Each structure stands twice: as C-alpha cells, then as structure tokens.
Structure to design on (119 residues):
C-alpha cells in the first residue's frame, strides 16, 4: 500500500469551546494521509487514479469554514465523513486537526486529534 499526504492545510476559523474562540477565531492545520495503490496513477500519469488535492482541500475548507463547533474531534469526524462520501478512492485514510495556540493556562504550541477510516 502506498501513501499520499497533504500536510498542514491552513485555516483561520471560529471553532472552540470558549465564546472568545468563536468570536475571535483561531488558527488550525489539517493533515490528510491516504493509503492506496499509486503505481497505476504513476504509470499512466492520470489524476483520476489518485487523490485530487484540490478536491480534498475544498472538502476540508467546507467544514473548517462551516458552522462553529466546540471540539477538534468534531471537525476531524466531519471532514473524514465528507471525504469518505466524496472521494471514491479513499478507503483507508486519516484526518488530523491541530488547533494552534489553544487557550489554556501555561500555553501550548497546539492540540491535535487524529481519526482514522475505515471506522
């Protein structure tokens, strides 16, 4: 099995448990890791045989710029479920969502969650 990775898709969005996060927003990054056979795509040089980056990015953006949610777990689940429906080659993949500078005492670079499919 081969691997295709989209790393560090960047978004400014209004998600979080605290009201201030929903008003001011925060910076997020999303990683997608797809496991699929890529040899045929490589031999035939055919986008239809692999993951279209643009399609994947639009799916992530639709969730990140959608309705505010409390948890990054919710974001990851929504992104993954949409990918599963809209990208037929995506049988096995993971979605990681990072919230940069989460509001917590003492500070942290980020909080991150990773969900995997199939579920």
């Amino acid at each position: 099995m081969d691997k295709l990775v989209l790393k560090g898709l960047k978004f400014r969005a209004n998600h979080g448990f605290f009201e201030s996060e929903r008003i001011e927003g925060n910076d997020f990054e999303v990683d997608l890791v797809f496991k699929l056979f890529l040899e045929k795509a490589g031999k035939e040089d055919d986008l239809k045989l692999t993951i279209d980056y643009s399609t994947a990015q639009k799916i992530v953006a639709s969730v990140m710029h959608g309705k505010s949610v409390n948890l990054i777990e919710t974001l990851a689940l929504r992104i993954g479920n949409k990918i599963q429906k809209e990208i037929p080659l995506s049988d096995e993949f993971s979605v990681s969502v990072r919230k940069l500078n989460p509001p917590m005492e003492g500070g942290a670079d980020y909080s991150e969650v990773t969900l995997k499919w199939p579920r």
About this structure: Strands lie at 2-13, 26-36, 92-100, 110-117.
